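Fold this sequence, please.
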Amino acid sequence: MSYFTAIQPIQYEGATSRNPLAFKHYNPTELVNGRTMEEWLRFAVSYWHTFTGDGSDPFGVSTMQRPWNHYQGLDLAKARVEASFEMFEKLNVPYFCFHDVDVAPEGNTLRETYRNLDKIVQMIKEYMKTSRTKLLWNTANLFTHPRYVHGAATSPNAEVFAHAAAKVKKGLEIGKELGAANYVFWGGREGYETLLNTDMKQEVDQLARFFHLAVDYAKEIGFDAQFLIEPKPKEPTKHQYDFDVATGLAFLQSYGLKEHFKFNIEANHATLAGHSFEHELRVARINGMLGSVDANQGDLLLGWDTDEFPTDLYSTTLAMYEILLNGGLGSGGLNFDAKVRRGSFEPEDLFYAHIAGMDSFAVGLKVANKLLEDRVLEDFIAERYRSYTEGVGLEIMEGRANLHTLEKYALEQTEIKNRSGRQELLKATINQYIIEVKR
């Protein structure tokens, strides 16, 4: 059955095209710095926002018109699988991602939930046999059900910890069965609302133990996917333990988990933490921990996670700059953890949104690559720090200086001269590169 009968496969038509159902900049076979765009960008469709999201919000009921929504239960789950692979094919995306409850409904018992998952996973597996689209990552939803009201791995109730562990065990088995390249942990409720009733050390110890159990079981079953932690500072809890990359990195180092994990960076989560998207990417990159990306953007006028499709070319350029410097995303990719706006409720809006996001990152890739080719930022930064390549600066960097020698040097100085950081010039230069690439 076709669910998107009015949509033909999306083709690349170039920057001058006015066809809203065509790529203007994303040409999957175009070579950029020795790799195709598809290889650099590794786009993925998120199952939750795309196929289960209904447009409801705290102030209104669902608005989304979806041709599969007249089904219920497992029939609805099966229809979504059919619709998803039709969309994957028409967008020609190489990957998709899902939570367990996205693809199959939870049952009244864990055994029933497992049975539901087994049926739908087998259906997905059959579709994957004839589809080029692979599983970028899967994960277990450990935040929606009321049992997780106080957290999952960090819950004060050991029965909840056990239930969450069972869900992750099943998720790892599903990931192996479907050939997932990664497995993600997002601690939606792994945090606290108030310290008045919280034993923080106990909860963080529990979380570390939970991760070690997952690492051990993955080794036991031979599931060699990359483990990813997705930082977020708040929502739904007031303060989450994986606040940002730096916090997550300190946690992993403290509990001997660093070698087993990398980070899945989400743009909107970065801004909620008070950082830019590129800041979080860079902190992960310079520590060898950049694994994958949830590609979206937030509204800076709103203080919550709006999960908008990425269209800010400045942001996508600086993001791809970090990804190129990282040598790519390895087994990771750019997953559109993004949802159409509540007022964009027709099925074709799903295609318009993904085309916009894919084109935006394609522009970002081309601009970032040109910036690196021309060494626009690299040469400026090298010159800015040149004083550390000679004289007293070199002594500092090589460990030959001490406070005695530095004091002697400082006492003999007559004047310190700084140079301009040229921030406005650099931003104007990036703007010019974006304009040139878009032509």
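The chain has a mean pLDDT of 97. The longest strand covers residues 134-139.
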